[in-house]
Amino acid sequence: MIILNEYISSLVPREGPILGNMYKEIEEFLKKEVKNPIPFFSTTVLLAPICEEVLFRGIILNGMLKNKIHPIKAILFSSFLFGLTHMNPWQFVGGLFIGSFIGFIYFVTSSIIDCILLHVFNNAFAVFSMFFFMKNEEILSQEIDINFWLILTIIFTIIVAGCIFLLKKRRKI
């Protein structure tokens, strides 16, 4: 699902007078953010999924479903809003796609926790990919303190262990 999302987002042009400049600005912004990896990781992988899922699935989608709006319309509308909040065409397309998938999961399971976990995994994959596959390797060529990798590994292990624990707990119920 994540790879399909990345492919669909890659179809949006990254060149031209408007999109080219926007893409370069976003790329420069991310290069600056990556230099402070712990706040970037915690915001992108932990805080954003919790806040966004509570808002878009827990409040907007849930409210629309409770008001008897057709599930497909409710899922697509909440996903559309989710994509818009990312404020760039690449994340809009990806947000619409992954938001629809997570919205469907919410419709089927009525579990905000499942949605948060999916969102965490999606963002973690994106962040780790960015760390390891950036076009400009200046960030990777700098010596990064071993404590950074240790902290990042511990955080990722805690997230994975927590997700496994929650999934096993759900299956027992």
Descriptive report:
- The protein is mainly alpha-helical and 173 residues long.
- 83% of the residues lie in helices and 0% in strands.
- It contains 8 helices and no strands.
- Helix 3 runs antiparallel to helix 4 and helix 5 runs antiparallel to helix 6 (112-133).
- It is flat.
- The protein starts with a helix and ends with a helix.
- The model has no long low-confidence stretch (mean pLDDT 79).
Main pleated-sheet profile: none
Which ranges are low-confidence, i.e. pLDDT below 50, for 5 or more consecutive residues? none
Q: Quick check: average pLDDT?
A: 79
**How many strand elements?**
0
Beta-strand fraction estimate: under 5%
Query: What is the first-to-last residue Cα distance?
Result: 27 Å
Q: Which sequence of SSEs, written as H and E, runs from N to C?
A: HHHHHHHH
Rg, please?
17 Å
Topology:
Elements (H helix, E strand, L loop, with lengths): L1 H9 L8 H16 L2 H30 L4 H14 L4 H21 L2 H22 L4 H4 L4 H27 L1
Helix pairs in contact: 1-5, 3-4, 3-5, 3-6, 4-5, 5-6, 6-8
Key attributes of the depicted protein:
83% helix; single chain; mainly alpha; 173 residues
Quick structural summary:
The chain is mainly alpha-helical and 173 residues long. The chain is built from 8 helices and no strands. It has helices at 2-10, 19-34, 37-66, 71-84, 89-109, 112-133, 138-141, 146-172.
